[in-house]
Write a structure and sequence with these properties.
This protein is α/β, with parallel strands linked by helices and 351 residues long. It folds into three domains: 43 residues, no CATH class; 136 residues, 3-Layer(aba) Sandwich (Rossmann fold); 126 residues, Rossmann fold (3-Layer(aba) Sandwich). It is 37% helix and 16% strand. Keywords: DNA-binding, Repressor, Transcription, Transcription regulation.
Length: 351
């Protein structure tokens, strides 16, 4: 004869064994705070110890419905594919998110299938916030749905963006200081004697591109650079054409700054095909770091603190979740690291 299945422990069992009321157990287990009932930290620890000894498991959905915290942080990307490859631009963000979540005692919940019937990415499905299973969410990606962000904020759902996004009203975000980093790249090239610097800006609009453009414009003004005929809008996926590069060289460009490292790498290939020596005859720099394991000389660029941005985003979110008072939205900028690289050289003529 088989033994009868063991009954799952209940909160009443925890209360009996711990010697406290069932109300106390409910408040502790569900992560709630009560103005009328003060529960000492040692009592909370004792309740959790008893719960573990009984094999009690917390139902996250029930806990959420009870108004408590699950200690679950959602991670949502606006891109159609979740960035799990270590060569992906977004992968270091995830490494930082995971490290901070583990350090702060939170689990991660990845949202990977939030595609609507129209094929677009949306947080809301049939009017329901799918991120609500988590206590709050870290969000990243370029294809941001700004209407969803405004709705989330107005509903009181806590989230932190990785990357600056222009939305009506304040939201908390962590970004890199692209403007200052871009200025340092220009300063480096000017310090090498370059006065005619071609700027390959992004054809697709976006806040990171706008910040880079602002940094370049400020540096151009600071150094009194003449960029007439030297500014070209290019798409990241395509890069400049050989004809466009020849035109920039004919206009007197001795250095190129590309808004993305992949554009700079394509530019290096084109220049090599034209017989232009880099950095002997021409310098090339990028306003982002190159992917790992890319062959060739080290690119002059700046490194984006992606891992640190992921960690900081989690820290800011947890501050919102655990504060007993409303936390004002914050904008945090982290510095980038300039890399002199091997693709920039002197343009000074020997006397």
């Amino acid at each position: 004869m088989k033994d009868a299945p063991r009954r799952r422990p209940r909160q009443s069992d925890i209360a009996k064994l711990a010697g406290v009321s069932q109300t106390t157990v409910s408040i502790v287990i569900n992560g709630r705070h009560s103005d009328s009932i003060r529960i000492p930290p040692e009592t909370r620890r004792h309740v959790f110890e008893v719960a573990r000894s009984l094999g009690y498991t917390i139902d996250p959905v029930a806990r959420s419905l009870a108004g408590g915290m699950n200690h679950l942080i959602g991670v949502y990307t606006f891109e159609s594919l979740f960035p799990m490859d270590h060569h992906d631009f977004y992968y270091p963000f995830l490494v930082g998110i995971e490290a901070a979540a583990e350090a702060l005692g939170y689990d991660l919940l990845m949202f990977t299938s939030a595609t609507g019937s129209d094929g677009g990415r949306s947080i809301y499905r049939e009017g329901v916030n799918r991120l609500g299973l988590a206590d709050g969410c870290v969000m990243l990606g370029k294809e941001t749905n700004r209407d969803d962000l405004v709705r989330l904020r107005d509903e009181g759902f806590r989230f932190v963006l990785i990357g600056r996004r222009d939305v009506p009203g304040p939201v908390t975000y962590v970004t890199a200081d692209y403007a200052n980093a871009t200025g340092k790249v220009v300063d480096h090239l000017v310090g090498l004697g370059h006065e005619r610097i071609a700027y390959l800006t992004a054809a697709d609009p976006g806040e990171p591109s706008a910040d880079r453009d602002a940094g370049f414009l400020a540096a151009q003004t600071r150094h009194g650079l003449d960029t007439d005929g030297l500014v070209l809008s290019v798409r990241k996926e395509e890069g400049p054409s050989a004809e466009e590069v020849r035109r920039l060289l004919a206009a007197g460009a001795t250095a190129f700054i590309a808004h993305e490292s992949v554009v700079a790498l394509r530019l290096l290939d084109l220049l090599a095909g034209m017989g232009v020596d880099v950095p002997g005859e021409c310098s090339v720099a990028a306003l982002s770091d190159a992917p790992d394991a890319v062959p060739g000389p080290e690119l002059t660029c700046f490194r984006i603190p992606r891992r640190e941005m992921g960690m900081r985003a989690v820290e800011l979110l947890v501050q919102q979740l655990e504060s007993e008072e409303e936390v004002e939205p914050r904008a945090v900028e982290l510095p980038c690291t300039f890399v002199a690289g091997q693709t920039s050289g002197s343009n000074r003529k020997e006397s």
